[in-house]
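re: ur question from earlier - yeah i can do the single chain one, its not a big deal. heres the input i used so u can compare w yours
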Amino acid sequence: MPLALQQLNIWQYPELLLAFVLGLFVLVKNNSPRKSNPLPLWLTSPALALLSRFPEGYRRWLNRMQLWSGWRSNTAYGALAAAKVYPVLASLLLGLIIPVWLSVLLAIPAFFFADAVLFVMSKKRKERIKQSLPQALDLMVLCVDAGLGLDATISRIASEKSAVRHELNDELMILGRDILLGMEREKAYQDLYLRTGVEELKSLGASLNQAAQLGISVSKILRGQSEFLRSKLSQKAEEKAAKLPIYMAFPLWFCIMPALMVIVLAPSFITFFDYIKPLMMK
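and the output i got, formated as tokens:
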């Protein structure tokens, strides 16, 4: 290694580390699901080749997280591979100006940073779908009671932009398109669950399949599912409220109680020491 690089200290030039962090942020932000600009093939192909060396179970998990997060373009997997591989290479190149062990230590979070972003995005998307599903079911009940068929109802709710979030709109639009193209309803409902990972949609699809087989009213099924989901959301809110005293115990005992004890007991201690001080001097 050249002497100049050996004498170079990364902490003397924090702008290099800042530039690396900003470059990593721009790379991940530009490859988010809402961006449509694909990376060039010469940049994604080496990253895909390196990522293909990893276990198949891990790669399947990445594909599933991409589906659940809504990142489904043709170039999404290549962009994900680039967001995982090239930050690691950049971290290893920092070994020329920082200690090697530190560059290796930085490469580990650089590799899994995209996984964490995907996991958080998929979790938030599933929560938004769960929260908007009862409103969508209520609208479906109104449409079915008004005389629309189930297929027309799904298409109508998919185009509704007021009470239903766009994530659920997109999934219902894909569901309606699959049914319109001749896919079996059971397969279409199963694909809906696989695309979103929302258990409530799996239960809804099973209920609609059972209603079609047994001749049960679709309106009753939808109304029952809506009531069930609302009760489930209310129970989850009550569960979070019941956990609040546990979460408040730490700041209460370690932050508030010491200050309160000082305010309450300090005058008594001052009076006590003022009283025993003459006695101790004797």
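DSSP finds eleven helices and no strands in the chain. not sure if urs matches, ping me
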